[in-house]
Amino acid sequence: MAKIQAIRGMNDILPQETPVWQYLEQTVQNVLSAYGYAEIRMPVVEQTNLFKRSIGEVTDIVEKEMYTFEDRNAESLTLRPEGTAGCVRAAEEHGLLFNQMQRLWYRGPMFRYEKPQKGRYRQFHQIGVETFGMAAADIDAEVILLSARLWQTLGLLDSVTLQLNSLGSNEARAAYKEALVTYLAQYREQLDKDSQRRLESNPLRILDSKDENTQAILQDAPVLADYLDEESRAHFAELTAILDQAGVEYEINPRLVRGLDYYCKTVFEWVTDKLGAQGTVCAGGRYDGLVKQLGGKPTPAVGFAMGVERLVLLLETLRCVPEALRQPFDVYLAAESKGFQSEVVLLAEQLRNDLPGLRIRIHCGGLKNISQKAKQTGAPVVVLIKGSAENNLSATLWHRDEPVFDVALDTLAGKIAEISQHNA
Ligand code: ATP
Ligand code: MG
């Protein structure tokens, strides 16, 4: 019988990779907590209508990427393709939005039926940030500064570029859409198939097209910036002023529109040229219209989502991961000869009491060539327990293959703390 394999585009994250994931996740969590953000956890399955209504019927996601199925009750459900819709649904459902300000974040798997390739998978992970109830540009600036601080902390700041644009108000976008359609209609036959269709249904999305011909035609198309309303202009100016003062560099990209329908005013992406075609590692913007669109009171909102796989790839590519993280334990503890295995288990328990936070792995199984085996684990500290004729235990200690110490058990914890510079 053929062995069952994982589903195409859905990856196992193996033990040698998880340290990088944990490092990234922990760093994000530290940065977010420095800005006072609170975590929210939503289900991975929602009613299909939630995504249709929020993301928009005429988007790649809803048209062809969703994992949608009927449950046993014939209700249409969808594996979440992104986190914003579910976050708004949850926040609204539990009364977190009305007359309040919220700074939330979430993480977890998302599902899109795409063609799997490097940096693009069918199950992938995002860490997302959503803020609610704040209308001015200071919060737009905060979420961007927060992401910049994260790249700085991870050593990635020199490898990513911030692209920025404003989509303006709904009215401004409507006026622009008209001008864009008038322009593009002249070239209808030369546009790619999706773009031809979108000329009627969702012309702004054409700016997002990855087709070269379409992009060439777009070179001379009208630009959104010329249609911006006064308020959006002022909002954008305030945002860029804060970024300038904070020393965060950006490029204004007039063609940046983002794939989802619910954005307005600020949109941004952090892009790298180190990963090939899948270069966007973080994307977001303002979506003041979404809460109302989903049945709530009008609520200003700004957020972004980063692609964890792409960031892990970037950290690996640029060798930005501290090497020590890959070693899952600090101390390897074994018996030197038979008959002391239970002492080893108990001694390890005692050491974990004495040295909280120190990572100790004990040796189980055969003891042949034990000192060699123990050193080969790569642990910075190796401890072998041995018994004397009187059955008194003592220990032999290696520190990165440096001279051997023989120590009495009552001084073992102190000695380990000293050589591994462990401050619990
Ligand atoms: P793209 O243009 O690359 O398809 P998108 O606009 O569909 O991106 P968003 O919906 O904005 O992506 O998602 C935010 C981030 O999540 C992306 O910038 C990317 O880093 C990551 N991401 C999106 N889709 C995938 C995927 N299929 N596999 C891996 N990461 C993804
Ligand atoms: Mg996409």
How would you characterize this protein structure?
This protein is an alpha+beta fold and 424 residues long. It has helices at 18-34, 48-55, 60-65, 84-93, 137-154, 170-185, 193-201, 212-218, 230-246, 290-293, 308-317, 341-354, 370-376, 412-419, and strands at residues 38-39, 45-47, 67-70, 76-79, 102-111, 123-132, 161-166, 251-252, 264-271, 280-286, 301-307, 331-335, 360-362, 381-387, 393-399, 405-408. Strands 1-5-6-11-10-9-7-8 form an 8-stranded mixed sheet. A 5-stranded mixed sheet has the order 13-12-14-15-16, sandwiched between helices. It is elongated and about 95 Å long. The mean pLDDT is 94. The site of adenosine-5'-triphosphate has 18 residues, from strand 6, strand 10, strand 11 and helix 11.
List keywords for this structure.
single chain, alpha+beta, BirA Bifunctional Protein, domain 2, Rossmann fold, 2 domains, five-stranded mixed beta sheet, 14 helices, 21% strand, elongated, binds magnesium ion
Compile the SSE list and pairings:
Layout: H1 18-34, E1 38-39, E2 45-47, H2 48-55, H3 60-65, E3 67-70, E4 76-79, H4 84-93, E5 102-111, E6 123-132, H5 137-154, E7 161-166, H6 170-185, H7 193-201, H8 212-218, H9 230-246, E8 251-252, E9 264-271, E10 280-286, H10 290-293, E11 301-307, H11 308-317, E12 331-335, H12 341-354, E13 360-362, H13 370-376, E14 381-387, E15 393-399, E16 405-408, H14 412-419
Parallel strand pairs: 1-5, 7-8, 12-13, 12-14
Antiparallel strand pairs: 2-4, 3-4, 5-6, 6-11, 7-9, 9-10, 10-11, 14-15, 15-16
